[in-house]
Amino acid sequence: MDLGIAGRWALVCAASKGLGKGCAQALAHEGVNLVINARSEQPLDATAQELRASNPNIEVKAVAGDIGTDAVRQAVLSACPRVDILVNNNGGPPPGDFRDWTREDWQAAVDANMITPIELIKATVDTMAANGFGRVINITSGAVKAPIDILGLSNGARSGLTGFIAGLARQPQLAGNNVTINNLLPGSFDTERLRNNLEISAQKQNQTIEAIREQRVQSIPAQRFGTAEEFGTFCAFLCSAQAGYMTGQNILLDGGSYPGTF
User: What InterPro entries does this protein map onto (predicted)?
Assistant: First the structure.
């Protein structure tokens, strides 16, 4: 299927690895020009080279730095001639017990996983509406749908973003001008973050990583972890011309792990 987005420009955050990289790869395959961002310059530049090699017909710009800072956000936005597609993504806060978290911990989580994506949305959606096309994808977490007790910082901050998007996406001046805003909620995907969490769990439970990994896989109806590539492909479809009638949705990609009807 031709997704109808070749030649457009996308800004993809946290794109040097994992799910963000999967999204950038899928968009590159569709002929979308890219501005990619991540904190570390070397892996980001390596990803940019990969993307250019995968499709010589597109332009790829890399801007390294913490997207949570005003200066980096401005640099990223300035590097993009026109933001038709925005993929918001950021690392989640650490797990733990809420009794141990300080006010500063909460502020950092909310800033990274709620306020930063809102700032990028604010900077881009009105121009998208004026141009008659825009796609915003927020990569949040399956924990928004089914909270995980040790991920309270993430549960809270990402749920705040989810509530905000529910109202914003339905504004007629956006939805009525072909600007859609949707949230992608990943479950267990085979990324570096997942592998790190498995290692931590293995150490705490005095088990091997292989044993912990197998336990986690067995709890997923699909009997496997997801891949960054399939996540990216789904993201690319939500960015397509054909997806213009879907907005304000929370789409769970978790291999069937969530047990509820709604």
Answer: NAD(P)-bd_dom_sf, SDR, SDR_fam
C-alpha 18/C-alpha 205 separation (Å) is 26
- Beta strands at 60-64 and 134-139: parallel, antiparallel or unpaired: unpaired
d(CA 131, CA 46): 32
**φ, ψ of residue 233 in degrees (nearest 5):** -65, -40
Give start and end residues of each alpha helix (H) in the chain: 18-29, 41-54, 70-79, 103-110, 116-131, 152-168, 172-175, 192-205, 209-218, 228-238
In the predicted model, what is the mean pLDDT of residues 182-208? 90
Q: Which of 188, 232, 177, 250 is nearest to 213 (CA)?
A: 188
First to last CA, the chain: 30
Domain positions in the chain: 9-187+227-253, 190-225
CA distance 260 to 262: 6
- Give the integer Cα–Cα distance in Å for 94 and 106: 11
Is the pLDDT score of 44 beyond 90?
yes
Please answer whether residues 36 and 48 qualify as being in contact, where contact means their C-beta atoms are separated by less than 8 angstroms. Answer: yes
The pTM score is: 0.95
Mean pLDDT for the stretch of residues 241-257? 97
CA angle 62, 64, 70 (to 5 degrees): 115
pLDDT tens track for 90-148? 988 988 899 999 999 999 999 999 999 999 999 999 999 999 999 999 999 999 999 98
Q: How many CB atoms lie within 10 A of CB 32?
A: 25
Strand partners, 252: 185
